[in-house]
Each structure stands twice: as structure tokens, then as C-alpha cells.
């Protein structure tokens, strides 16, 4: 994850983070998966969600992780 975050902020990661106006990016959520394949599928599914659903998911996950 640290490598990907560094790539995104260097402008060598995803196309979305290529414009300097979208950097620096911050990691606001992370999950563990058993395999890289599972992680990639989950990321792709999340990216397909509408913005409102993404925001709702992140808010509910954040509430679950509060100690």
C-alpha cells in the first residue's frame, strides 16, 4: 500500500491521480484480503459504485473502527 500511495503522489500511479491538481492523495481506508486477486476485485467493485454509496460505505466503516 505504501508503494502505491507513493506512486500516486509521484504521478506515476493511476490516470486519475496524474494531474497535479489531484495530488497529494491520502489513504482514508484500507482492508486486508487473503489474496491480491480478491483485493483487486474488491477495489474494482468499489470504484464502480456511485459517489454517494462510496461515501456511505466509508462513513459506516469508519464508525465500526472507532474504539
TrEMBL record:
PROSITE patterns: GIY_YIG. InterPro entries: GIY-YIG_endonuc, GIY-YIG_endonuc_sf, UPF0213_domain. Transmembrane segments: none annotated. This is GIY-YIG domain-containing protein. Residues 1-59 form the GIY-YIG domain. Belongs to the UPF0213 family. Residues 1-24 are annotated as: Disordered. It comes from the Bacteria. Pfam families: GIY-YIG (PF01541).
Amino acid at each position: 500500500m505504501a508503494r502505491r500511495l507513493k506512486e500516486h503522489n509521484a504521478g506515476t500511479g493511476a490516470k486519475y491521480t496524474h494531474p497535479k491538481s489531484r495530488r497529494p492523495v491520502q489513504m482514508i481506508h484500507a482492508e486486508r484480503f487473503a489474496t491480491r486477486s480478491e483485493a483487486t476485485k474488491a477495489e474494482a467493485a468499489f470504484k464502480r459504485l456511485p459517489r454517494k454509496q462510496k461515501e456511505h460505505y466509508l462513513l459506516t466503516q469508519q464508525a465500526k473502527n472507532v474504539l
